[in-house]
Amino acid sequence: MSAKMSQRRRQLDNKRSSAINNEQTNGNSAIIAAAAAARRRNQHRHFPTSNRSRFEYILKNLTKKKFPITIPSYLITIITGLIMSFVLYRVVVTIINYRSQYEYTNIPIKLPKLIDVNDTAPKSSPERFWGTYRSNLYFGLKHRSARSLSGGLMWFDYSKLQQTPDRFLRHWCDQNDRLKYGWNYHDGETFGVEQINDDNLQLNVQWLKQISGEHGGDWTTRISVTPQSLNRTEPISLFFYFHHDLPWIDEISSISTQSLDLLTVRGQTNELEGFTIKIKLNTNTNQLIARTLTDVFQLERIHENLLAKLVTNSNEQTHVLLAEQPFKDFEHNTFFIQLTLKQPLANEMFSFDIIYQSDSSNNEREQDLTGFYFNEEITRLQKQFDERFENIFQLKTKQNMDAKKIQFAKSTLSNLIGGVSYFTGKSLVAKANQKVPDEYWTASLYTAVPSRSFFPRGFLWDEGFHNLLIARWNKNITVEIISHWLDLLNDNGWIPREVILGNEARARVPAEFVVQYTSNANPPTFFLTIEYLLKTNPNNHLFTLPFTQRLEKWYQWYNRTQYGSLPLSYRWRGRNASSIYELNPKTLTSGLDDYPRASHPTDAERHLDLRCWMTLASTVIGKLYSLINNEETNRYLNYAQLLSNNDELDQLHWSEQYGMYADYGLHTDHVQLQRVPMGKPNPQQPQQPTHMVRQVTRQADLTIKYVKHFGYVSLFPLMTRVLNPQSLKLEKTLNDLQNPNLLWTQYGLRSLAQSSSLYGVRNTEHDPPYWRGAIWINMNYMILSSLQHYAKIPGPYSEKARQIYGQLRTNLITNMFRVYEKTGHVWEQYDDKTGNGQGSYPFTGWSSLIVLIMSELYDE
């Protein structure tokens, strides 16, 4: 039955097929075309025509593993993976861009502060409440408060008035004044003695504090001036002033010409409450003219404000005196006293005291801090300073240390300590390419400064070096300084490179350096200081969990923002890849400014010094967490061990071709500055202006390679003690140190080898070489410290390290002391050919590390 039915179906199908064929043959062309179109539609009746329905159709068939076109399953997997990767990439990029666009630069990090607002108040820290914290002045005072009563000294002699009518008044420390000045003694808390030589004038300033009461106690400043020229008759004017943001003067007594107690001022502020200021003469003279002035002045313009108030009198001999005006107690915020010596005699000293007395000390005060009592206290404190200095540094036990060299060391330490300042205000910060900067939150900073005359503000990488010496003298000062700096962390873990707080500080800074950029780093040298504190005092109250957490956030910011293109590599941000005016684009963020790096900045750069800094930082963070958590190891110590691996270091930074550790990047030495016309030629202007731009003279040499510039950067594996004591590369580095054609000089180690193509070369037509040959004391200190380390560790090169250490230390001490005797200053850097000081002066920031070099105190 079924067979018959099947046969019948085949017959019907054959008839239907024959009929269709006959229809195609016998029908007209329109019918034939319509039939063909119908067959095509019928063939693809399940494939959608709109874009959306096509996508849904493909997706549906993909999920059912069906597709109108046969595609292997592995290819579908690859395509799907690529699509998902692309989508994920776009999402990540969008998130990063969104975060960058809306990232706040000025939000404090959400961690407990290390310095509470009351920690610097007189009740909490009376020993450091008042101080010489206006180090930008030849002599200035203030207390550690957001709104401080500030005091300052000014002077001029009439010969200067005649010679330089626009620069005769001394006030701010200024290299153009060409003075010799500095602290002979300063202990950072109680007293200081400063000597100032101004051509034919010799000024001596003694400052002494007594802690009592509840508002910081009493203090006295004694100012003595001695004319030096023979038959001196030119008048001298001395000024001292007090200033506060708000009116503070209650009462001023009339000037007494019949008594040594010249004048009394009563005042009060919210933080100091009531106090008395007395002006007392220590010298009887009939040659004195005294004037006072009260007015409303701005502290950052007080110099200019004063000049506008000076008038000449109409006596037989003309004098420049303060103009008299009525006192307005509810308005005036500034008090000046002027003492003019009409006919001073050579070698006759004139002296007066400014005595500040807090009302809260009245019940404890037995006598005024003046006269013989003042002399006794200054003498006692100087003797105490000498004994303490010797106990710490023990220079009398060192070879070739005579009394003059020891006094040089005392003065150098005192100038670093005497440069410690206190600032309050708002920094200006910005992201890269942000046109209008943001204001940081109102903050205070307790810090040393590199140079009172040229850099009277806080510098992040300088401060770590400063406190290697300060911590030996007074660990409490160092703890407060580090705490203040770490309290500047923003929510991203960033700290400004330069901290410029307040209008007075900002007035000393060129406009291009005021704004700090949140992508820019600076060497984290505080890890050097903290490493020393960990070794010598692991139970220091600084090492709390909040402190370590802040330090960790700072460390993580470096790891997050300064990473390199390869694992375990790092790169300083902030180089200008589009610069055409620099021979080698500066790396200001490294602290080494114009030290040669890869000639053409790219993301592929690898910076050796930053990697070594991160090795040190990882080690210190790891030790801190080991101390807090009582554990032998942690992820930071493991990472530090990885960074310390010499094989890993060599793969990234050792050049077999050059036989040195080096940076890596897109580089050529064949560059030069060429003078070219500015703009298009102008026939009407025969003398067309020109400028210097960089030209690559051998384009084929511009390739990715190691940077062949031997210098301080090449020594960082030695300086941070990463090199294995058995390493042949340690031997090669030590041999290169002794080579006079490279870094060795009789004055110290130069920053860049003489063999470098950029040795001593200007970076632009306006910028002289900075880190291209000069001798820098901070780097020489780190090298000496490491040489002593390798000399103490048993190994094949310990004796070589010991010999180099001894000669280098002698060279540095001999030259710096020679220059100090000649000029009266410690300098920013020293010429590698003559040994003479150069750069800014006095520079008793990291150059003061010569004290540790003299005392051979490095780690212990």
Task: Write the SSE topology.
Layout: H1 2-26, H2 29-43, H3 51-63, H4 73-102, E1 130-131, E2 140-143, E3 150-157, H5 158-163, E4 180-186, E5 191-198, E6 201-210, E7 218-227, E8 236-243, E9 249-252, E10 261-269, E11 273-281, E12 288-295, H6 302-307, E13 310-312, E14 320-322, E15 334-341, E16 350-358, H7 371-393, H8 403-418, E17 421-425, E18 428-430, E19 438-439, E20 443-447, E21 458-459, H9 460-473, H10 475-486, E22 498-499, H11 503-506, E23 516-517, H12 526-536, H13 545-561, H14 608-629, H15 635-644, H16 646-653, E24 654-655, E25 660-661, E26 664-667, E27 671-677, E28 690-696, E29 703-706, H17 716-719, H18 728-737, E30 744-745, E31 748-749, H19 777-792, H20 798-823, E32 829-830, E33 837-838, H21 850-855
Parallel strand pairs: 18-23
Antiparallel strand pairs: 1-2, 2-3, 3-8, 4-5, 5-6, 6-7, 7-16, 8-15, 9-10, 10-11, 11-16, 12-15, 13-14, 17-20, 18-19, 21-22, 24-25, 26-29, 27-28, 30-31, 32-33
Features:
hydrolase; eight-stranded antiparallel sheet; alpha+beta; 2 domains; 33 strands; membrane; signal-anchor; Glycosyltransferase; 19% strand; disordered N terminus; EC 3.2.1.106; Beta-galactosidase, Chain A, domain 5
What would you note in describing this structure?
An eight-stranded antiparallel sheet has the order 4-5-6-7-16-11-10-9. The chain has a six-stranded antiparallel sheet with strand order 1-2-3-8-15-12. Strands 19-18-23 form a three-stranded mixed sheet, with no helix packed on it. Helix 9 packs antiparallel against helix 10. The chain has two domains: 244 residues, Glycosyl hydrolase family 63, N-terminal domain (Beta-galactosidase, Chain A, domain 5), CATH 2.70.98.110; 442 residues, Glycosyltransferase, CATH 1.50.10. It is of the alpha+beta class. It is 34% helix and 19% strand. The longest helix has 30 residues. The N terminus is likely disordered. Keywords: Endoplasmic reticulum, Glycoprotein, Glycosidase, Hydrolase, Membrane, Signal-anchor, Transmembrane, Transmembrane helix. It is a single-pass type II membrane protein. It is found in: Endoplasmic reticulum membrane.
